[in-house]
Every structure is written in structure tokens, then in C-alpha cells.
Amino acid sequence: MSYTYMFRPAVESDLQAITDIYNASVIAGGSTADLTPRSLDQRRAWVESHRPPYGVFVAEASVAEDHGWMDDDANPEGSTDSEVGTGARTAVVGFGALSVFYDRAGYDGVTDLAYYIDTDWQGRGAGTFLLGSLLDEARARHMRKACGIIFADNAGSIALMNRFGFTRFGLMPAAATDSTGTMRDMSYWYLDL
Question: What is the pLDDT of residues 130-173, one digit of tens each?
């Protein structure tokens, strides 16, 4: 089944989905160095800290009602859903951010990318759509370079970095622990925009 993905800035009503998606990643381990889930207020403060030209964005999936919602192996109860007037159903299936890379003025125009996909939507093209949309947004905001800091064994994110032409410029061994207690290497990636 194919889905239509949409990309837009995050709004207040997205905060629960953003929190749920992020916390699922925290609990699973392997994609963030946060050791405990974040509260809704913590995620709200994080979203609000992104001032232009930076920002937080969501990816929504839409599918026509008469074609069914998800494959049988997905969990629609785990997604934040809404109805739209065209007979389609939408859900926030991921979020991403263009964040400050380093808070000194000489780094203006360099953005740190982060993105997370609902576990039920991984492997369905949502990550590819979201990263491509984040890069388009970074270019539209006149960023000159995008960076990603990723656990070196996160095969999905490494594949996306390679797909979009990022170059790995560093590896820090045994740099961070995740919520499972696993010590992980960090890989550092950049793309000239």
C-alpha cells in the first residue's frame, strides 16, 4: 500500500505525537542518548527553543479511507490520527528538527539535523521523505551545511545519510550510552547545501 506524506511545521497539537514518538525511541535504545523518557512539557520547551531560521517539523501520512488505514502489522492506535474533509485519514508519523549546530555566530548557516519515525511507520519511506523535506527546508532557509550526529550502529540512519550524499567526517568511539545501557560509538556526518 502506498501512502501520501506531507511535511509541515509542528504546532501545539503535535506535541503529544512528538513526545510519544521520541519516547518510544528513548525506550528502544539505539537512536538517542537520552536515558529516560521526556515529559510533554520538556518536549514543548524543546520545540519552542527552535527560533527561525531553525524549526521543528512533522511528517504526516495520509491514505484514502476507502483503501484502508494501515497494513495489518501496524498499530493505528499508536498514531495520532485526524480526519480531513477529503475522505482521507492523517497521522503524524515522524518529526524532525533543524537545530543550532553550535551557538556561536560564526556557525550561523550550519544546522544540526535530527529526525525520528514512529516505529509502526519505519520501513515505509517516511524517513526518506522526512530527511529529504528537512534538507529542502534547510536550503529554503539559506542554510549552507547540514550535520547529523548518529550512533554508528544505527543502520537505518546511516543508510539515509549515504542515500542523501552526506559524508562521514568523524567517529568518536564509546561516546554515549543509550537507555539500554549500551555504550555506543558516535558518527558525524555533513552535507553541503
Answer: 999 999 999 999 999 999 999 999 999 999 999 999 999 999 99
Q: Which domain holds residue 46?
A: 4-192
Rg (Cα) of the chain, in Å, rounded?
A: 17
Residue with the bigger pLDDT between 73 and 124: it is 124
CA atoms of 83 and 113, how far apart (whole Å): 30
> What are the angstrom distances between the C-alpha of 95 and each of 70, 105, 108?
19, 26, 23
Q: What is the pTM of this model?
A: 0.86
Q: Backbone phi, then psi, for 66, in 5-degree steps?
A: -75, -5
Give the residue-averaged pLDDT of 178-187: 97
Q: What is the DSSP string of 61-92?
A: EEEEGGG-SS-TTS-GGGSEEEE-TTSEEEEE
Q: CATH no. for residue 27?
A: 3.40.630.30
The full length of the chain comes to 193
